[in-house]
Amino acid sequence: MKVAIIGLGLIGGSIARRLRGFHNCTVAAYNRTPETILLALHDGAIDEGSSDAGEVMEGADLIILCLYPQLNVDFVKNNLSHIKSGAVITDVSGVKTFMVEELAKILPDDVDFVGAHPMAGREVGGYQSATDTLFNNASFLITPTKKNKPESIALVRELAEYIGCRHVVTTTPEEHDAIIAYTSQLMHVVAVALCDNPMIERSTFFSAGSLRDCTRVAVINAKMWSELFVENKDALTARIHEMRDSLGKIEDAVARGDRETLEEIMAHATNQKMKWLME
């Protein structure tokens, strides 16, 4: 088996570092910077690599797209002639409906795209930040469609388990995007909004840690996250509206001096958080 990894950033590099022995595969990687390919070859993370997409994709049985979503789509569109019949394509993108719909317009019927999203990351990116343990005990989301072959889905699931993911969850592209808009994208929205407040400039010695915790993900890859927000705009807008409604209830209770209502809201939030932790 030949596996082609498209993009040796944090996620692509970490996948490469864990693939050794997977179906006795040859690991080939594409990256636009030759220096990164040389580093991955030196590390033994890949068997071969090139900045020539065709060279990497030719004959690949499994192609893993590890670029930004639109770049993934453009990459496939520009390299269709190098994708062999029967190949399985998967990805690591944070939006799934966009990927499924866009690739369905491009791919021939004899190539199977199974959307996926490993729930792992770090605050730093690039191959130099890739690790052998990034996916240990992580969740891995698979978003198959009716078009996918059972054996293609099984291969992606096997890949997830092989790289160390503990929970492999199958869902629809639509449910993925609706929930990720809450668990991931909204968290970045909140962190960015907090840091957009000029009050942060006066807060250096006025926080025991909660400000740092709440703004951790505000150190953000603006290019990637702005794209993810727009590609999932309907779901994310809905989550922002829900957040606004919750803030409105709290604001109203504070303005009225209504401690009883505030206590009810806080108690409910505590119960919800503890229930989530137990699950």
Mean pLDDT: 96
Q: How many structural domains?
A: 2
Please count the helical segments: 11
- Can you tell me the overall shape? elongated
Task: List the quaternary state of the chains.
Answer: single chain
DSSP strand count:
8
What portion of residues is helical?
A: 40-55%
Say which CATH homologous superfamily of the largest domain is assigned: NAD(P)-binding Rossmann-like Domain
Strand order of the largest sheet: 3-2-1-4-5-6-7-8
Q: Which residues form runs of ≥5 with pLDDT under 50?
A: none
Q: Report the major sheet.
A: 8 strands, mixed
Main features:
279 residues; alpha/beta; Rossmann fold; 6-phosphogluconate dehydrogenase C-terminal fold; 11 helices; elongated
Q: Please, could you describe this protein's structure?
A:
The protein has 279 residues and is α/β, with parallel strands linked by helices. It has 2 domains: 2-171, Rossmann fold (3-Layer(aba) Sandwich); 175-278, 6-phosphogluconate dehydrogenase C-terminal fold, CATH 1.10.3660. Helix content is 49%, strand content 14%. It has helices spanning 10-18, 34-43, 53-57, 69-78, 97-104, 150-162, 173-195, 210-214, 222-231, 233-256, 259-278, and strands at residues 2-6, 26-30, 48-50, 62-65, 88-91, 112-119, 139-143, 167-170. An 8-stranded mixed β-sheet has the order 3-2-1-4-5-6-7-8, with helices on both faces. Helix 1 links the parallel strand 1 and strand 2 (26-30). The radius of gyration is 21 Å and the shape is elongated. The model has no long low-confidence stretch (mean pLDDT 96).
